[in-house]
Design a protein that fits this description.
The protein has 307 residues and is of the alpha+beta class. 71% of the residues lie in helices and 12% in strands. It is rod-shaped. It catalyses: ATP + protein L-histidine = ADP + protein N-phospho-L-histidine.
Length: 307
């Protein structure tokens, strides 16, 4: 058994060690608390910075959105103004075309009634003089025969000029004019021609200024091209109403054309100009030995007619 002094020394030593461990533990707790507070402060600072950046980003987003909306409004106003300008120009073109067609009709009537009648009267008088001088004066009779031939040529040229100003066939209406055009094409070319036209398309075209003339000229030029170049045995012509426009399709089973539009002849160039002036669109589909399709769409001002 240890003596009392030794026991006291051991107890004192144990007490010191216990006090040191407690101090170390307390220091560790304080250090951990300090680190925690440091992390909390760092996170709080990061949150503040992030919040400021979010607010700045939201502000820039609002500014960008406002600028985008302003640009969209400006674009909408510009598109509206462009559409109104286009409609105004289309109306002006239609009015000019109507005035031009009226003037052409008046000139055609004047040529037919005045110059045409005068030439016809002169031709009749020359024919009577030919009969009267036949066998009496050979030289005079020959001169009269030559004069009669010249008057016949003048009458043919006059009829051509009048027909170019305003197709005489349209005097019987678009339906009859197209039917006659198709019949004459089949008779002169020997090519079978199938023709189909909706009543609504005919009625709508006749209510539009100059649309009947445009359709007649397109069919005339397209059939002429088919007779000269296609080597076809069949041509189909169809006229119908589609989505507020008159659709004209002319298709043949001929040898086709070159796929390059730059090689198309003056006939298609004239058709393109005529269709563009009427505010329409056209498409040509063709391939070697696959025939040719000419598809034309001409807009109607009275859309309710086409529905």
């Amino acid at each position: 058994m240890a003596n009392p002094p030794c026991r006291s020394i051991c107890l004192a030593a144990l007490f010191c060690i216990s006090a040191g461990d407690a101090a170390a533990a307390a220091w560790q707790v304080e250090a951990a608390a300090g680190v925690t507070l440091l992390w909390i402060g760092t996170l709080a600072t990061a949150c503040c910075v992030l919040r400021r950046r979010c607010r700045a980003a939201e502000s820039r987003l609002r500014e960008t959105t406002a600028a985008l909306h302003a640009e969209q409004r400006a674009r909408g106003q510009a598109e509206l103004a462009l559409s109104e300008l286009h409609d105004g120009m289309a109306l002006l073109v239609q009015q000019q075309a109507a005035v031009r067609d009226d003037e052409r009709g008046r000139i055609a009537r004047d040529l037919h009634d005045d110059l045409g009648q005068t030439l016809l009267t002169a031709r009749i008088d020359v024919s009577l003089l030919q009969v009267a001088t036949k066998g009496l004066h050979t030289a005079a009779n020959d001169k009269l025969a030559h004069l009669g031939s010249s008057l016949d040529a003048a009458l043919r040229a006059l009829r051509t000029a009048i027909n170019n100003l305003r197709p005489l066939a349209l005097g019987e209406g678009l339906r009859g004019a197209l039917q006659r055009q198709v019949r004459e094409f089949a008779r002169l070319s020997g090519i079978t021609c199938e023709y189909a036209a909706e009543d609504s398309a005919i009625e709508a075209a006749q209510r539009e200024p100059l649309l009947d003339v445009v359709l007649y000229r397109i069919v005339q030029e397209a059939l002429s091209n088919a007779a000269r170049h296609s080597h076809a045995s069949l041509v189909r012509v169809s006229l119908r109403c589609v989505d507020g426009s008159v659709a004209l399709d002319i298709q043949d089973n001929g040898i086709g054309m070159n796929a390059d539009p730059a090689t198309y002849g003056s006939g298609l160039s004239g058709l393109r100009q005529r269709i563009s002036a009427a505010g329409g669109q056209f498409m040509v589909e063709s391939g070697a030995r696959e025939g040719t399709l000419l598809a034309v769409a001409l807009p109607l001002a009275h859309e309710s007619v086409a529905r």
